[in-house]
User: Fold this.
Amino acid sequence: MSFKNKVVIVTGASSGIGAATAIAFSKEGARVTIVGRNQEKLRYVSEQCSAVGSKPLVITADVTNDEDLKKIVHGTIKHFGKLDVLVNNAGIFSIDKILSENVVDSFDKVIATNLRSAVYLTHLAAPHLIETKGNIVNVSSIVGKRVTIENCFAYHTSKAGLDHFTKCVALELAPKGVRVNSVNPGFVRTDIMQVLGVKKEAQEDFWDSMTKTSPLGKVADSEEIADLILFIASDKGRSITGSSFVSDNGAILVPHLGNIELQA
Ligand code: NDP
Assistant:
């Protein structure tokens, strides 16, 4: 799966799935733009990319800010001269109930981060991807396919929207030779709960509970999701578009995964 001479943007590359994806692309010879807000974490990922491949372009950006999104695409084109693959991975989890106070503020934040950013970045990147006959991989979730856990309707809704967006844009861009797909992970042990401000003990309870409930008795590593992203983005996936790929240890098959009441 060589990505030699390919240029790849990975959003949310400072941590978890995005970091593993950026490192995996670097290892396969790609020139990678890594995007996030946390400069220290980006620096660490940059070092890891450099250790296995070439030095990435680091762009500090907030994906909820339109000017920052322009900076990601323009900066990449200026630095590398083209774009072959866009991975819309940046995302946040959120605990919401419709009866909660400030529910709309929380909903707006989740949609801006998980869905709107992918829409605008795709709009900005599409002309460049048409030139290279490139492709897009959106990092969705099993929650886009099924309501799996309670008390996180904004997150579920953002990922369901991302799945439909993936299919709509795949149809629009197919005649131009651009493929668009999603990966839909189940539970992957990353910083996602820590970022939410969940106490360490509650985080451990959450991962333990998801491990016990999972049919394969485990949660995934970021590297497994990265492998799947690379396969879809590679020439091996050249006939795949408008598809979504679940990698979830069978979690989607479980009738009731649990009721999250994590105390922040
Ligand atoms: P992490 O919290 O480890 O990583 C999230 C990444 O998104 C970080 O690099 C973070 O960067 C970035 N990010 C968040 N908000 C913004 C923002 N406003 N602007 C720029 N970057 C932002 O979580 P994961 O690796 O788990 O999550 C990656 C994706 O995978 C998400 O879309 C998530 O929904 C999805 N996913 C995760 C699952 C899991 O169980 N972990 C399961 C299914 C899907 P920084 O903090 O530097 O800004």
Remarks:
- The chain has one domain: 7-261.
